[in-house]
Design brief:
- With 439 residues, this protein is an alpha/beta fold.
- It folds into 3 domains: 202 residues, Four Helix Bundle (Hemerythrin (Met), subunit A) (Up-down Bundle), CATH 1.20.120; 91 residues, Translation factors (Elongation Factor Tu (Ef-tu), domain 3), CATH 2.40.30; 129 residues, Nucleotide-binding domain of ferredoxin-NADP reductase (FNR) module (Rossmann fold).
- It is 46% helix and 17% strand.
- It contains 11 helices and 12 strands.
- Helix 9 links the parallel strand 8 and strand 9.
- Helix 1 runs antiparallel to helix 7, helix 2 packs antiparallel against helix 4 and helix 5 packs antiparallel against helix 6.
- The two termini are 30 Å apart.
- The chain binds flavin-adenine dinucleotide.
- The site of flavin-adenine dinucleotide has 23 residues, from strand 4 and strand 5.
Length: 439
């Protein structure tokens, strides 16, 4: 209930932020209208700019604001609302040019005032931003390079849009409006400064050190970290943090990883990382003593948020990590609630945490079901992909309201599991998924 009220509060704050520039337009003296479509076009321009300004609010990762939703929902919202903001901002000049064709004459550098070019520049930056974000994977743009370009283009688009509105002046030139508009613009720029400067500076002052590097089965490595010169932070089991390993927090080279360690031991954080790409393939080279910056905790994938009488976990591959963090926490809390873990992997040999899971079986009321794609000879357990029959064989016979389901793994596995569980009568509200692919 607490998170529902908190969610409603933050949605209200967001709507207020979006509406603020439109309210400025309505503050007296209101300039005479220039026709319906002209006014619609200006309202769209202001609303689109306001949405753009508040996009920084979403990526600032304010923990209190993101807590009720989960960061994956915030990022999803960020993507969708960016498209709406872009559409508003694009329609703004198209409408003006349609209503007032003489404006086409401005497209000559000698004729147009500077604020016209500021508007054009903002729109071009937004176009580049959109194409590079929507087509990053097909265009093979490296994530880290894309992220820097994204930050630069977003800043440029916003600053040029503010300059454009200031330059046009017509709607914000009365002293009261100048003040209000100035405050709104300043708040966006301060937000930007917080995201790009203040937050990294705060992280720099609270470093962690690697105290152990452990090789795990399945090309994965565990880093154990201890806070250096500060008390660290507490987290809920199943949550995640952004790690920066070889760079400064200003470099925008952070990667998200789930806490693999028990939430009862925040002084010894563990992250288990599978070698999959440029950054993760180098994790095995990390030396004990290496400085690491940890921005967290984030996420809503936690049993602490979903009180229940029993839990069912479904993990695929390295998706076992947050679930391992939950199981380790439950051991430390001497929890005796019934648990079922269905864990799908390619081979028995590479199954991450294999031995420890067997040990946990003795420490918790835990049933383990391993599902292997390529089983070894003589394998008696489950084989192949998850199916309705497989789940029906192992899920508790009695579905009840006090049972929650947690899924983490590849996107296709998550989608399949959600569909199968739902078909078996599990309401979607009882299913919680963690996607390892935010962007
Ligand atoms: C909430 C969450 C929790 C995660 N927990 C774990 C975990 O516990 N263990 C684990 O091994 N992996 C985890 N991941 C996945 C991990 O973040 C990526 O595998 C890693 O960032 C890939 O980086 P790379 O440079 O090695 O791979 P690349 O080959 O460069 O990237 C592969 C893909 O990973 C994504 N990616 C790359 N960099 C980032 C980034 N900085 N931020 C977000 N996405 C990125 C992009 O979609 C990219 O296309 C988690 C991901 C998320 C979103």
């Amino acid at each position: 209930m607490y998170y529902i009220f908190l969610g409603i509060f933050w949605v209200g704050v967001y709507l207020a932020l979006i509406m603020a520039p439109l309210v400025v337009l309505l503050v007296s003296p209101v300039p005479a209208g220039s026709g319906f479509w002209w006014d619609v076009s200006l309202a769209l321009g202001f609303a689109g700019t306001a949405m753009m300004g508040t996009l920084f609010f979403q990526t600032a990762r304010f923990r209190r604001a993101s807590a009720p939703f989960g960061i994956d929902i915030i990022y999803y919202f960020h993507r969708q609302i960016s498209l709406v903001a872009f559409a508003f901002i694009l329609i703004h000049p198209l409408l003006l040019l349609t209503v007032e064709p003489s404006l086409w004459g401005f497209f000559r550098p000698a004729v147009a005032p500077w604020h016209f070019w500021a508007g054009v520049g903002s729109l071009l930056a937004l176009c580049l931003l959109l194409v590079s974000s929507l087509c990053r994977k097909p265009l093979h743009i490296d994530y880290d390079r894309w992220r820097v370009a994204h930050a630069v283009l977003a800043t440029l688009a916003l600053v040029l849009a503010i300059a454009h509105i200031e330059g046009v002046g017509h709607y914000v030139d009365a002293p009261s409006k100048k003040l209000l508009w100035g405050l709104i613009s300043l708040s966006w720029l301060l937000l930007l400064a917080y995201v790009r400067l203040v937050k990294p500076a705060l992280l720099l002052r609270r470093p962690f050190r690697v105290t152990e590097v452990i090789a795990e089965r399945g090309d994965a490595w565990t880093l154990q970290l201890a806070p250096e010169g500060h008390a660290g932070f507490s987290f809920q089991p199943g949550q995640f943090a952004w790690l920066t390993v070889w760079d400064s927090p200003f470099a925008l080279k952070e990667h998200p990883f789930s806490f693999a360690s028990s939430a009862e031991h925040p002084g010894a954080l563990r992250f288990t990382i599978k070698a999959l790409g440029d950054f993760t393939a180098r994790i095995k080279e990390v030396a004990v003593g290496q400085k690491v910056y940890v921005d967290g905790p984030y996420g809503s994938f936690s049993t602490d948020r979903q009180p229940a009488d029993s839990y069912v976990f479904i993990a695929g591959g390295i998706g076992i990590v947050p679930i391992m963090g939950i199981l380790r926490t439950l051991v430390d809390r001497a929890d005796r609630r019934p648990l079922l873990l269905i864990y799908a992997y390619h081979t028995w040999e590479r199954l991450t945490f294999r031995e420890e899971l067997e040990t946990l079986r003795g420490q918790l009321d835990l049933r383990l079901v391993f599902v292997l794609k390529e089983p070894p000879q003589g394998w008696q357990g489950e084989v192949g992909l998850l199916s309705e029959e497989l789940l029906a064989r192992h899920l508790p016979q009695q579905q009840n309201d006090r049972q929650e389901y947690f899924i983490c793994g590849p996107v296709s596995m998550i989608q399949l599991s959600e569909k199968l569980l739902n078909r078996l009568g599990v309401p979607l509200s009882k299913i919680h998924s963690e996607l390892f692919d935010l962007v």
